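User: Modeling request: complex.
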Amino acid sequence: MKKKTIDVCLSPYLYPIYHKDDSIVVVIDILRATSAMCTAFENGVEKIIPVATIEEATEYKKKGYLVGAERNGIALDGFDFGNSPYSYMNDKIKGKTIVISTTNGTQAIDAAQKAYKVVIGAFTNITAICDWLDSQNKNILLLCSGWKNKFNLEDSLFAGALTERLLKKSDFQLSDSALSVSYLYKQAESNPYKFLRNSSHTERLASMGLKHDIKYCLSLDKTKIIPVLEGKYLVRLS
Amino acid sequence: MKKKTIDVCLSPYLYPIYHKDDSIVVVIDILRATSAMCTAFENGVEKIIPVATIEEATEYKKKGYLVGAERNGIALDGFDFGNSPYSYMNDKIKGKTIVISTTNGTQAIDAAQKAYKVVIGAFTNITAICDWLDSQNKNILLLCSGWKNKFNLEDSLFAGALTERLLKKSDFQLSDSALSVSYLYKQAESNPYKFLRNSSHTERLASMGLKHDIKYCLSLDKTKIIPVLEGKYLVRLS
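Assistant: Request completed. Predicted assembly structure:
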């Protein structure tokens, strides 16, 4: 049997180059969109509508939805949440359909919407997503959201962590980018927080006083839920 | 004084995202276009016209130019060279203007043609290019040609090698991608050939019997020449 492959797409802008009809796409935006989405589900949200633009977010807000909207790391005025995971540890989202628009993560979901299947990955659900991916007989594409279509360190680091865990389960064939993020992860493994202190995005968040968020987003297995895209909704994978 | 920056663009497709008006762009296609171009200059070529398409290459051939044309690692029939550096160790190119079209490298040059300055980098001219870059008061963008717009290991490795050498000379500010390729290089430094054996592209070339080429392309400082783009020509930087 041909080995399943793990490939890594390092920017949403490159997604059309990496798209394969039969791959499961894992969207990654560690700081902080996909971490926040996992937290929202763990805190009882029913569905999330990820939208790429502020205009769409505003339309949903007018219709009465609870809406999270963030650009450049800052929660936008007039909305209910930003993209801090802590803002979704909140009883008022329980059982609700909420809307989220962020600088990078929701753009990546948008880019991958024609994939065979799109799931949401973060350190906070890494074991669940690793076990599930390994149980599927599909090629895997890890899609890093990056920062405004540029490479970023934290998403690549997670892609490496997931690749390394998958390799402990099965014998996948790695692309060059998958090999590269695996090497990256091996160097960071002992202390990812310290490793990321060198990252431009981490510096940006830290200068906004968000160290607390960063530490949360690097913590493992806060939930067993895997958000999956069904039409325009993210729902729990059942 | 603000620190100069080193950024790394991991695919020609991403070039528009990384373009800055004042950056020097180093185009990198280690296996084998930029290595071959350095070799051609070292062997006396006067100018190289890099062209993106086979059609352009064919037009030049009809006009009587010596033309190198390669796709998917294979020299195309009806042309004078492929992109093996060894094919340019050849007296008949001395003093001539030749034309080269390759799968990745000449596409990357094409993508960056509006940059402030475009130079050609390879392990075979690494010391020359490092010294020159350090002498310029400009930001630096290392443009990896990759493989058909996908990330590849060997170009990233060179970007990391050059970044590490530049850091030994001056205090540059690194982007996330520059940090990442530096980490990659540190893992490969003791034996880049062995490291690259894991690379999909290296496997592809090795299966074509091109180990000899790979070893040459990883050898340091075969020339002091830095090819630079002037209009449609690559010439020696003076």
